[in-house]
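Try this one yourself first.
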């Protein structure tokens, strides 16, 4: 990031912080008993937690109405909360709020399970998060993602009112900061050495790898393999003997990708969310209408829509393209006078000859 780009990023972050502070003003008249009951409800109900503490993320400025969490957001948050050692791949379509939930909402929800319960007793033992690491496709990208959660912990007035002052020292610009309760946050780019990453006696216990793949990377099997080895050796090794939450989030832009390789591991919990569910309905119906999704498909085209929104990467043929294929209803088999089946077995021993093809013609 150049000095000019960094300056622009800092200005944008400051503006975002002002938005967070203004949107989360506290204006609730409630008794101490009512306040405690409300906090207890928000600790147990992820969707209500998001609605209350993050109106600047959920409210549509055009309609003034909030967009509630989808079922897959709630299911993922509850799964993460229930398993401190979860290893998972969240394969969610583009626009499904992957980063917002996994990098901001979920960790703050986990943190509030401890915050404010026993302030006088000192630092909670066995708490949900001690050290969080966000990994992006570059160090600058990871720092920007880290800036989102720092803005919330430092300026979200509702969260501060309920759980106390959070921010203590450090900055997303430097790639790390720490809260007053000594929860540490770090940003790392892909391939960057994570060895020795810890805060005092604590090793990372919440690592989220956010959109690690890109179109250039997946064109090179060698680069994908090398990066995947880094993920499951150097990065995974920063956990304390494998203890802790370790996620990869993104959409499946290629069959040969780091995300695909991670999801192939049997012990990894995988959740796939396409913009259309198995019944053909919109997965996040509160956010998009069928007409809006169809408009996206029309502009993106079949191949791009399948890759970005249906987690179905399709390799475009050099000779035959999808839009050239015309579909029709097959006549009854009894109507055919001749049927010819041709099979290309691709029997050569080269890794470029591993595709089989069968074509059936009928007259």
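Now uncover the answer:
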């Amino acid at each position: 990031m150049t000095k000019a780009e960094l300056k622009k990023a800092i200005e944008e972050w400051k503006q975002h912080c002002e938005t967070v502070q203004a949107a989360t003003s506290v204006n609730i008249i409630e008794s101490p008993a009512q306040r405690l009951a409300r906090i207890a409800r928000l600790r147990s109900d992820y969707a209500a937690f998001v609605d209350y503490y993050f109106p600047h993320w959920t409210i549509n400025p055009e309609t003034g109405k909030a967009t509630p969490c989808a079922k897959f957001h709630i299911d993922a948050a509850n799964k993460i909360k229930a398993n401190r050692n979860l290893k998972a791949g969240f394969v969610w379509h583009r626009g499904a709020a992957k980063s917002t939930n996994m990098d901001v909402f979920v960790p703050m929800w986990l943190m509030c399970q401890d915050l404010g319960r026993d302030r006088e007793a000192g630092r909670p033992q066995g708490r949900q998060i001690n050290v969080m690491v966000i990994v992006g496709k570059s160090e600058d990208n990871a720092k920007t993602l880290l800036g989102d959660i720092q803005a919330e912990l430092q300026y979200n007035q509702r969260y501060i009112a309920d759980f106390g002052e959070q921010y203590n020292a450090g900055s997303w610009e430097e790639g790390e900061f720490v809260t007053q309760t000594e929860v540490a946050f770090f940003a790392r780019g892909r391939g960057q050495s994570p060895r020795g990453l810890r805060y005092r006696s604590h090793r990372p216990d919440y690592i989220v790898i956010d959109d690690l793949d890109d179109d250039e990377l997946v064109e090179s099997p060698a680069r994908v393999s090398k990066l995947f080895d880094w993920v499951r050796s150097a990065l995974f090794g920063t956990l304390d003997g494998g203890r802790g939450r370790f996620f990869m989030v993104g959409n499946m832009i290629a069959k040969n990708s780091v995300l695909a390789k991670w999801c192939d591991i049997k012990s990894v919990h995988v959740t796939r969310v396409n913009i259309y569910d198995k019944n053909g309905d919109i997965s996040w119906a509160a956010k998009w209408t069928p007409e809006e999704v169809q408009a996206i498909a029309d502009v993106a085209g079949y191949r791009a829509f399948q890759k970005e929104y249906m987690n179905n990467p399709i390799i475009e043929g050099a000779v035959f393209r999808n839009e050239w294929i015309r579909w029709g209803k097959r006549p009854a088999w009894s109507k055919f006078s001749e049927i010819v089946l041709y099979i290309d077995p691709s029997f050569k021993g080269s890794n470029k000859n591993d595709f089989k093809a069968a074509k059936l013609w009928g007259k």
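Discussion: Residues 322-362 form one domain. Residues 3-23 form the longest helix (21 residues).
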